[in-house]
Write a structure and sequence with these properties.
Number of helices: 10
Structural class: mainly alpha
Order of helices and strands: HHHHHHHHHH
Number of strands: 0
Bound molecules: zinc ion
Largest sheet: none
Strand content: under 5%
Number of domains: 2
Oligomer: single chain
Distance between the termini: 45 Å
C-alpha cells in the first residue's frame, strides 16, 4: 500500500512539475498554456517520448535532439522537486484505503501550495521577477481552500494584511535594496495560506535562512553587497517550514513571548 501510494505520488508530482515548468516559461513569454511543448531554441515540437518528466532529460543527455542546444536544468530539477513535495504531502497523513474527503482535501491543499511556491521560486531564480498575477490568484484560491477545510477566515485575512504590509514597509524603507517590489505579494500569499501568527514565523525563518546564506556568500565573495539576491526562494523555504512544523514553531514562539 505504502509503495503503491508512493509511486503514485512520485508520478503525479513529476507530471505536475512538468506543468510547472511550462507555466514558468510561458508566463514569462505571455504565451498561452495550450499547444504542445517545443524546444525554446529551435522551436521544434517535442515528441511524446521526449515529454516524460525527469527521464527524458537524462535520455537526451540534457540536449535538444535536433539543434543540440542545452536544455535548462530547470526542467528535471522542478520535476524532481515537485515529486518530493507531492510524496511528502501524501506521507504526512495516515495512509489507508479509505482516504476520507477531508484528508484528501488536506493532501490536495499541500500539493497545490508546494506547486505555487515552487513555480514562484523558479520564476524568481530565472527571471528575477515575481509573477504577481499568478501569486495573487493562487493566494485567493488557496485561502478559500483552507477556509473550506476549517481554518477561520479572519486568521488568513489578518495574516495576508500583516505580512504583505510588513514586507511592503521593508521594501519602502530600504528603497528596494533588501527585497524587490514583488516580494510583498509573496508575503500576501504566505499570510493568506499560513494565517496569523504562523505566517510571521515563516517570514522570520526566511530572514534567518536568507541572512545566513547571504553572509556565507559575502564571506566567500561569491556576491558583492550590490548583487541582487532573489528573496523568493527564502520566503518559499520559510513558508514550507512554517507549514510543515507549525506546531513546534508556535510553541517556541509562545515561550519566546513570555
Ligand atoms: Zn532545439
Amino acid at each position: 500500500m505504502l509503495i503503491l501510494v508512493s509511486i503514485f505520488a512520485i508520478i503525479l508530482g513529476a507530471v505536475l512539475g512538468s506543468f510547472g515548468n511550462v507555466l514558468v516559461i510561458r508566463m514569462k513569454d505571455g504565451e498561452s498554456i495550450r499547444g504542445r511543448s517545443h524546444c525554446v531554441t529551435c522551436k521544434r515540437q517535442l515528441r511524446a517520448s521526449e515529454l516524460i518528466p525527469i527521464a527524458s532529460w537524462f535520455m537526451l543527455g540534457g540536449k535538444c535532439s535536433s539543434c543540440g542546444k542545452e536544455i535548462h536544468w530547470q526542467y528535471p530539477v522542478v520535476e524532481a522537486a515537485m515529486s518530493v513535495l507531492t510524496l511528502v504531502a501524501f506521507l504526512r497523513y495516515p495512509l489507508d484505503l479509505n482516504f476520507d474527503l477531508h484528508t484528501l482535501g488536506l493532501i490536495g491543499f499541500e500539493i497545490a501550495l508546494g506547486f505555487v511556491i515552487l513555480v514562484a521560486t523558479v520564476f524568481d531564480l530565472r527571471w528575477k521577477l515575481v509573477p504577481v498575477e499568478f501569486i495573487v490568484t493562487s493566494a485567493i484560491v488557496l485561502a478559500i481552500w483552507r477556509i473550506l477545510l476549517g481554518t477561520p477566515w479572519l486568521e488568513l485575512v489578518m495574516g495576508a494584511v500583516v505580512v504583505s504590509a510588513l514586507l511592503g514597509a521593508i521594501v519602502f524603507l530600504s528603497r528596494g535594496t533588501m527585497m524587490g517590489e514583488g516580494d510583498p505579494f509573496v508575503g500576501l500569499l504566505m499570510g493568506a495560506v499560513l494565517g496569523f501568527p504562523l505566517a510571521l514565523l515563516g517570514v522570520l525563518v526566511a530572514f534567518v535562512i536568507g541572512g545566513s546564506v547571504a553572509s556565507a556568500l559575502l564571506i566567500e565573495r561569491a556576491v558583492s553587497r550590490k548583487t541582487e539576491v532573489p528573496f523568493v526562494p527564502f520566503l518559499a523555504a520559510g513558508t514550507m517550514i512554517a507549514f510543515w512544523w507549525s506546531a513546534p514553531l508556535l510553541v517556541i514562539a509562545r515561550y519566546a513571548m513570555l
